[in-house]
Structure formats: C-alpha cells, structure tokens
Design goal:
The complex is a heterodimer. By secondary structure, chain A is mainly α. Chain A has helices at residues 14-36, 41-53, 56-81, 89-104, 110-139, 143-163, 196-214, 216-226, 228-233, 238-265, 276-286, 291-315, 321-341, and strands at 2-6, 342-346. Chain A has a two-stranded antiparallel sheet with strand order 1-2.
Amino acid sequence: MFRLEARTSTPAWFNLALPLLAIGATLVLCSGLIALAGAGVIEAYGVMFSASLGDSYAITETLVRATPMIFTGLAVAVAFRAKFWNIGAEGQLLAGAVASCAVGAIPMPGPLAMLLMALAGAAAGAAVALIPATLRVKFKVDDVVSSLLLNSVIFYALMALIEGPWKDSFSGYPISPPIEDSANFPVLLEGTRLHLGVVAAFLAAPVIWFLIVRTTLGFRIRVIGENPEAARYGGIHVERVLISTALLSGALAGLAGVGEVGGVHFQVMSDISPGYGYSGIVVAMLARLNPLGVMPAALFLAAVMTGAEAMSRATGVPAFLSEVIQGTALLAMLVALLFTAYRIRRVGAAR
Amino acid sequence: MSTPAPLIEMRGISKSFGAVVANEAVDLSVAQGEILGLLGENGAGKTTLMNVLFGAYAPDAGEILVQGRPVTINNSADALAAGIGMVHQHFHLAPRLSVLENLLIGIPGKSGRIDRAGGLARLAEIGRQHGLMLDPGLPVSALSIGEQQRLEIVKALFRGARLLILDEPTAVLAPTEVDGLFSALRSMAAQGLGIIFISHKLNEVRALTHRCVVLRHGRVTGRVDAPASTTSSEMARLMCGHEIVPPAKGPSSPGAAVLTLDAISTSRHSGMALADVSLFVRAGEILGIAGVSGNGQRALAEVISGVLAPDAGRMTIAGKAVSRFSPREVQALGLGRIPEDRMTTGLVTNLPLADSMVLPRIGTAAFSRNGLLRPDSIRAFAEAQIKAYDIRCPGPMTRAGALSGGNLQKALLARELAFDPKVLIVSQPTRGLDIGAARFIHEKFLDMRARGCGIVVIGEDLEELLMLCDRIAVMYEGRIVGTLDSADATIARLGLMMTGVEGHS
C-alpha cells in the first residue's frame, strides 16, 4: 500500500524532472489512442518526431509555431505568479493581432511600422487584460471567469469586424486587408518562415525571467501572489502591483498576436490562433511558471502540433490527437506537481 | 501481567525526515483515566510523535499497541478506529456548516440518510457529561475560538475516542476559557479516557497532568511522576537541558514620547472598533496593552501599523504626525512591527526566508537600486541575521514555512530590529513559543528598551506583561479603561479592569 506524506522541502532537480515525467506519462497515455486508431504507436510518434524536429526545415517550422506560445506562456506565467488568473491570453492575442494589423496597413517605412505594430499590439493586449484585473480589484469579480468569457467577446467582435467594415474588399473573404509589404517581418533564413518575431520571443523569455527574479516589481509580483496580506502589511500596494502584472501579461499575449500578423499571416482572419492563448496555460504550467522554462515547454507543444499533422497524413490517426496530447500534458503536469508537496511512501498493508 | 495493559503504548518509535531525526526510540504509554503531559521545546519532536500516533506519518521503526494489541495506523481513519482522537492546533472544521453538521461529517447514517436526531442526542449527552455545551444549529464561523476547540473535542468523543491528544490547546484560549477546558478534561479522565496534553506552559502542565514525558532533540530526556510537586524550573531544565533564569529588567529612564495616540476612533472593523483611544509610549519604556482578546486590540495594532486609517483622532511617531496611515509611512517614521499572526500578515511561507526578511524594506537602497534587486545584499543581510539571532534553518533560501514558530518569530524580530525602530508594536510576542525562545524574545525587548526604543506589547498573558512592562493599559470594548504602573499592578487588579471596571494608579 502507498500513501502520501507531506514534504518539508522540494529538491531543485524536480523543476526539470517533473515536466519530463509529465511529458513521458502523456506520450504513454496517448499511445493507447493511437493504437485504437489502428496505427503503430512507434511509427506514429516517429513520424511526429521527424516531421517536427527531423530536419532543419521542420525545426524552423516548429520554432515558428513555438513563438506565439512562448509569448502567451510568458503572459500566463507572469500572471499566475501574482495569482492573477489570466485565462484570457487568447482574447489578448486576438486584440494584439487586430491592433498590429491596423497599424501595419498604414504606409510608412518598414522598421517604423514594425515597431509601431509591436507597440500597438502590446497596448491592445494590455488594455484587454486590464478589464478583468480592474473588475477584480474594484469589485472582487472572479478573474478566472471574467478573463475567460472575455475571450468569446473579443473573438466575436473580431468576426464582426472582418465580416463587416474591415472585410478585405479585394478578396471578398472574411479576412482583413493585408499589412503593407514593407511591414512584413524579415525572414531570417531563405526558404523558411523563420521570422524576426521568433528571435524576439526567445529574447523575451530571459528578459521576463530577469524581471521576475531580479527586479523589485518581480519581487512584489511574487510576494502578492504568495501572501497578499503580508505584502500589504509590508507596504506593498497590492492592487497597484496586480494591475501592473495584468498590463504586462496582456502586453505579452498581445505580442503573440503581433508575431502572427507580422511574421506568418500578414493579415487577420478568424482562425489566426488555433488556441495559442489556451496553450499558453499548458506551457506555463509545464514550465512551472519559470519564464526560462517557457521556451522548452512551448517547443514541446509546437513539435506536437507540427508533428500531428504529418502523423495524420502518414498514419491516418486524426490530427486532433495534438489537442488530446496538450490536454493530457496539462493534467499530467498538475498531477506531477503533487510531488512537490508530497512524497509517496510504501507502508505495510492495513490490518 | 497483573496490571491491565495501558490504553496506548508506543514502543521504540523513530522517525527521520531526510537527515533530520525527529523522533528516536521514543517509549510512551497512557493508562485509562490518565492525563499525560508531553513537554518539549519547539522542534523537540512532540508534534511528529503525535502525528505518528494519529497516522499522518509512518514511523521508521517501533510499534504502537492499543490495550496490548499491536496495531498499524496508516491514516486518521485507522486512528479513529483504534479509539485515538486528536485536536490539532489548527482546527479542521467546515466554517459554513453548523455544529451538528460538522459533527456528522463522515459518519455513515442509516441507509444513506444522515441521522440528525441521533447526532443531536449524542451531542447533548456529551455536553452534559463533560460541560461541553454547544448550540447545534450555529454555523462554525459564528463560534469563538474556544467554542471551535470544544467542537473538535466533542467530535473526537462522538467518534468514540478513548484517547484524546490535544496539541497546545491553551495557546489559542483566553485565561477564563482555559479553566473550562481543564474541568472538561478532568471529567473525561475521571470516566476512564486517556489524555495526552501537549503544552509549553509549565504551570498548566503542573496543574492538570498526572505524569509527564519530556522530549528533547527527539528523545525522551525525562519522566516526571508527580508534576504537581515538581517545580517549573526543574521541568524547564529537563526541557532545555539547562536552567532558565528570567531576564533582568533594569530601572526605566523614559525619554520623550515616541508614539502618541490622541482620541483615536475607528468605525468599520471586523472585530471591535476603537472608541476614543489615547495613549503614549516614551523612549526606553515598555507599555503593555492587556485585555481579553477581541476588545479592540486588533484594531489598535492595525491603526498603529498604518493598515487601518482611523475616522477621528491623531497619531504621532517620533514627534511627527501620521497623515496617510499607510504601512510605508509609519515604517519610514520609525515604526517596527511584530504581528500577532506570523504566517498570514508577517511572512511569505512559500518563498525563501530571505524574501520575508527584506519584504518591508525591499524598495529601500539597502536592498534595491533603480528598481533592480541587490541579491547579494539581500542574501548577506539574511545570512547575518540568521547568525545573529541563531535562527535554525539550512540557509536564507530555505522556504520560510519550513521553519518552526520560534525561529520564524526570531526572523521577524531580526528583520524589524535590524533597522533600529524608534517604536515597536508587538502582538502576542511569545504565543506558541517554548521557554527558551520566549526568553530570547524577552531579552531582546529589554535590550531595545535599554537602547531607547519605545515598545507596545499587546498580550493576554498577564504574567508576561507584568514581567516585561513599565506600564500596563487595559482595553475593554474598544476603550482604554485605565493604565497602571507595573509596580502597582497585580493580576487580580488587571483581571478586574479587563472586565470593564475602571482603574487608575
């Protein structure tokens, strides 16, 4: 018989071991579904691996996929550190995409356009995140519910825009007009989609890590998340820090939208994000809310997404498996987090 | 064997956490009708031992016998089945449910239905037997701390406990409530129940228990067969391994007032509000605030700490008027604060100890510059304080929650005293601490007093106040009913004033 016993301390290597354990458990659990779909498990995972990490082009595709999830993962990690439950990265991403697309459509020199697109997208994401944060601070509205429901509001507002006033008159499809060619993010590697935003994402992660670990704002974010009462007595303006956190979180999620517009799609459509905002939650949890851990976690999910399509073509296993893997990975990580607080002990059978 | 087997016997219990030995070869037994005192300093292994008995931890070695039969206790359900009930320091109650509903949680009813009538009858019977009366319909959130504790005891009896473990039950009680608890415990023992009473307070142990076991560093270091006729200092020596001498208090030579409250009144407060409170503390003196808890002490501490802005009245710190009542403002004027509840308003248990130690001053040049932390200074500060105050922990990066209460209190003291406060506001400074740690805290206060700090001590332990303070003000229903010089104050006189009778010296 086994039992859980409270731990007095958590070894440092758990930070690495737990996500790996969760990923391992996820792949084992999902292999049952692959078998049920009538494909060879090893073969399916093999195709997934080679299509996502097997050659240099596949790797660039995975990096491009990982980019928005690094931004949304950082957004969620920052927010969750302060216990601001931002489930609204999806909506903030869409708002960022819309704002940057609108700016990018204005003719101006390329570098200036890109800078303004980033600023506008970040500001739009921050503005959206400000809504649940303000509701929570002023009226004690539950931020999980408000930030989550706001995603639908933004999504349908976006639909209304591109079906209506913002519809691309040239193509006639429900998509926005494209941004200026000069505003397209430069491609770093000829023949791939590896764009400037990818580099920005991989730079953002260490910057956010530094902010959380080495600045007074980061200190305050950590403290209000763990014990707002002690923070208040210690002279920290809890509400002010919470609002700052929300703005930062929303801006990061907005940047995810900027990257998709400037580097991948060059316009806004209804399916510009296949749920990158929600994936950000999985990424942040796998990373244990560590901004540096967000990078490998986002790469894992990106590899699953890119790989799943190829696997589907090669073996007939539905590509939806990618979403099952994401969900399973989140649950597996939540279970694995149990081991930071408890250890398993084997005890003799009860009487 | 001619004598009946003891109710509970623990033989050779050992338990380690990593390299830390919490219990080593501990033998302990409780007979029917016996009240056993379990004594020891914080970290001596009392709680671990009781958690082994109650099934929260599996022992590394040793066995547990119930009336002579070996049993395996893997969880609290096993413990209850073996007739062992435990009243923890932190209660395990559902605040929104009623007394009766809390009692019936987990009790299988008849054919899937909850047996409310049966529960009511048992509740009334237990209440009558031991003087543990409770209103079955009240929600737990409406009960006082003492009543919640009573409910925990009744819960254990309701589930058929024949051995009751109480972990520092008096730490949360007012003096009058302690008497009620003791008579209930004596009544239970008279009916053949065994009781294990864990406490730091030696006079209580001497008054209540039939026999004592003393733990130190996880081992049994003493057994006292006649606690009533053993002196407190002898017991203290068994616990600490050396004599405990009360700290010497020099004569007071108060200077100018460093904290004044002038006609302070508050409205809205979850506890008792303040009504026209005026008081002052001078440099180099200790002012005690006595009173039954819930008479406005919390509001007073919150106003002085800058967390609660009063509706009327003025406050000055070191001669300067407090205008905005923010924690940052009062701290900048020279106020230090040792809160009543270390875990909720003092420390951040899930973060490294160093973070808690710099928390109130993180924005100052000592620990940050231009918004960037100075990790080396933070670490050096924490390490220096850990050394200076002998805070027992693996290092400044240890999770604060992993430290014992005494060490946490030392950490809070270190963090406030390191910046030479002009005024110190302290609530229940030694609640839950063992003699050694309490002695250390007292010494530090007297040391600060000698260096010209004005100290306000809010407390319920009158003996402690009389020993520490130069003057003692008594609070009743949000007002100060009088202030006595310690020389004129007696426990009887203070006790009378605590019921609202005015007194002057």
